[in-house]
Amino acid sequence: MGHGIAHVMLRAGHHVILLDTSQAFVDAGAKRIAKGLARDVEKARLTEDQRAQAVSRLKTTTVPVDLASSDFIIEAVTEKFEAKAGVFRSLEGYSRPETIFVSNTSSISITRLAAATGRPSKFVGLHFFNPVPVMKLVEVVPGLQTAPETVERAIALAESAGKTAVRVNDFPGFVSNRVLMPMINEAVFCLMEGVADAAGIDNVMKLGMNHPMGPLELADLIGLDVCRDIMLVLYESFHDSKYRPCPLLGKMVAAGWLGCKSGRGFYEYPQK
Description:
Layout: H1 2-11, E1 16-19, H2 23-42, H3 48-56, E2 58-61, E3 72-75, H4 81-91, E4 100-103, H5 110-115, E5 123-128, E6 137-142, H6 148-160, E7 164-167, H7 176-192, H8 198-209, H9 215-222, H10 224-238, H11 247-255
Parallel strand pairs: 1-2, 3-4, 4-5, 6-7
Antiparallel strand pairs: 5-6
């Protein structure tokens, strides 16, 4: 998600600083961004000159102080509260007071994350969708203390990158994952209970419901660990058994079968 968000911001003409915990990670991210921008040229979305300019606007770093001049800091780490809050806490001292903090969380309360910082009025959620360069939607999620000006600037940022910004309220899972993840979870229950095999479940939803991807294919793309974590957020937030993660989902995560990124999930993926 991080390199995808950086990609669309560069493509839109913004300057981007990519921060991660090691040089290997930022180098890998920069390589993927460069590859994505080259694909934009092949698809006639950018000219070669625009691609070169976009690449020149990217800086990579492992040093938080390099973010000091940023207007926005967008977090895109694992879907766990402490990990996300820890990122923002660590960057607080390196950021200007007017810098807006943005979380790409897909389920965690923006109000709760904002409260972990010293700038709740300048904290907002922008939930991008995977793959970011292709998907048009961004959910814009204000927290309880988010200032109206912060929301307006976040919407403007998303729209500058060619996205359709839809404002939603700060409830667990927002709209997208409150609807999507229980469907994926129920598909995993169908598989566990032998209602059909994975391909059969996916084909029913693609051919019968006109979904472009089946729920198990989509889960593999998202990452089964991410799906499990989001279901846990919903279950712990609402205390409703309908959000209980399927035991098979937990087993697969424990086995390291996380989907596309690990080479195996509900399907197998040859690793390059």
